[in-house]
Amino acid sequence: MNTYAKRLMWPVIILVALIVVNIAATGIDFIIPTVNDGRLGGAFVNILRRSAPLLLIALGMTLVIATKGIDLSVGAVYAIGAAIACQMIIEAPDQTALGLVFGAVALALVVTAVIGAWNGVMVAYFGVQPIVATLILMIAGRGIAQLITGGQIPKVQDASPFTELGRGSFLAVPLPIWIAALMLIAIALLTRKTALGMLLESVGGNPEASRLAGIRSKGITVLVYLVCSLCAGLAGLIGAANLGSADANNGGLWIELDAILAVVIGGTALLGGRFFLLGTAIGVMIIGTLDDTIINVGLSSQWQFTAKAIVVFVVALLQSPEFRGWILKPFKRQPDAPAPEPAPAEEVLAK
Amino acid sequence: MFKQVLAGVGAGALLLGLTACGGGDDSGDGGSGDGLVVGFAQVGAESAWRTANSESVKSAAEADDRIAELKFVDGQQEQEKQIEAIRNFITQQVDVIVLAPVVETGWTDVLQEAEDAGIPVVLADRGVEAADEDLYVTRLGSDFAEEGRKAGAWAVETFADDPDGTRILELQGTTGSAPANDRKSGFFEVLDAEGLNYELVDSQSGNFTAEEGKAVMETFITTHGLEGIDLLYAHNDEMGLGAIQAIEEAGFKPGEDIQIIIVDGSKAGFQAGVDGKLNYIVECNPVFGEQLMDVVVDVANGESMEKFTPVEEGVFDSTQFEAELPNRQF
Hints:
The structure holds two protein chains of two kinds.
Chain A: H1 3-26, E1 34-36, E2 39-41, H2 43-66, H3 74-91, H4 98-124, H5 130-149, H6 164-167, E3 169-170, E4 173-174, H7 175-192, H8 196-205, H9 207-212, H10 217-243, H11 255-265, H12 277-296, H13 304-319, H14 321-328, H15 345-350
Antiparallel strand pairs in A: 1-2, 3-4
Helix pairs in contact in A: 1-12, 1-13, 2-7, 2-10, 2-11, 2-12, 3-4, 3-5, 3-10, 4-10, 11-12, 12-13
Chain B: H1 2-21, E1 36-42, H2 48-63, E2 67-74, H3 79-91, E3 96-99, H4 108-116, E4 121-124, E5 138-141, H5 144-159, E6 166-172, H6 178-193, E7 198-205, H7 210-224, E8 231-234, H8 237-249, E9 259-264, H9 267-274, E10 280-283, H10 289-300, E11 308-310, E12 315-317, H11 321-324
Parallel strand pairs in B: 1-2, 1-3, 3-4, 4-5, 5-11, 6-7, 6-8, 8-9, 9-10
Antiparallel strand pairs in B: 10-12
Helix pairs in contact in B: 2-10, 3-4, 5-6, 7-8
């Protein structure tokens, strides 16, 4: 097995285990998609659809973390993107106009991209630590979103084509799944089929050496924060379109932590360097499936956080070669020293 | 629109400036003077209800000559932020602290600190656990258990003749919050007392938001189906409206295929009622700013009070939605 497959093995096992638990609790219907109104539905498709915003954000976060950075502002950017689009649409006389919807979406994406570029410039050119640079917007961003909506929750008419972004489907597959999947493919192609991915890992591994080797590390840093923020804005649009409203306070609340969690579950270390986009996607599915599992096995709401913590704990331990070596020790005849491998476990626990 | 974005960015920049300066200084404006200084630790702005409530309190304080200043802090639905706000109020020596607690538990220490500082505490809207009863003067707010009982009474009346038992789904509010606890207990208290033959098929928290209400309802539908379900009881508007979307997207008719009770009664809730998408609304009245100011002044004057001061609230069924809609303030 190559390292890539090895990294993915444990998250995949956890995901499959969660799915098996759900099937045991609710029957095989859990995994089989149903069709109503020409749109795929069913429990697992719903999970994928609801996870789309988190996947978008986690993909951006993976790139940022690969450069040894972190972006805490994505939840606030999610709220800002949602607020801009919804407010612009409800202020227009005809909410069903297609041009208006495209304009609102474009404006939201441009603003969130600018926010991301600002984060990147702070980190790359002003030398502010990523956690501090993005913390500022994490705190201020929801205030900005509230000012945009005037403290209200703007509600877009159901007839507006904007809601299609969250509720519509193309070839029976819900649009949010399309958007997230296309983003995954686009980022994967960009980073794996061009030199960009290698440059990213190089910047994350050692920015100074990369610069001396002739890589424009500052430009690349700005670019990844911009992409991350753009993904967060897009996620906000999908979330707002699903509900037909933008909630400045609760939209995307704590999604930055879930995104970081998904990245780490997927095997990308917070230390920067190597990153695993597919691992991130599986991490997102684990988190999405967990919420449903709690309902399906009949646990009460009070258990939600504890159950999540237990699963994260197990994933973190399984990913630690030291832990696996320690557990398997009594069963091994020849005590081979386990190959030292950077373990992401500490970061998960530290979070 | 652009102006608002600009205003937002400008205010954001201002905020950054403040953060960089390392906090302002609010010393010097102590209690005395020709009016009361009141600190209000609000839950957040999580719903239209809350926004209307904040507006009502702010405008009532502004209009009232007896109140010199209202220090308003938005807790953003986090207990830590509210505790921090109360500690700041104590440092600033306000005359009265008004608290709308996010959750019921965990207030003992900070309320004790307020008592030690000699500052009376009034609870607005939500309550705290009974063990802390000595640490506040009175609670002005809705009787959540009564709201639950009103919802329960309608359910009993509507489903009394249901031969095969009433199957119920429940969307609870934020886990551990007073309205979630009391709306649940009041509802089932009546159902049990009246001997309704019912089954609680599932009950989960939607955290009082449309997003989670919709997500939980989607999972309810895939797990239990909707065919045999008679009633959905949602602890607030937002969750109920989110659930209605989920029901419609699953190809069912909310209000017909499944009867729906919501608590709150916002404009959006009544509009859904007029559209025939829900069946019963139990009002939870947020416009009690003036009543709150009277209570605050009485408390500052040291008058003795009951532990609970209820706010007046009504109930509305499908025949009343249309007439009531124009009267809604939030």
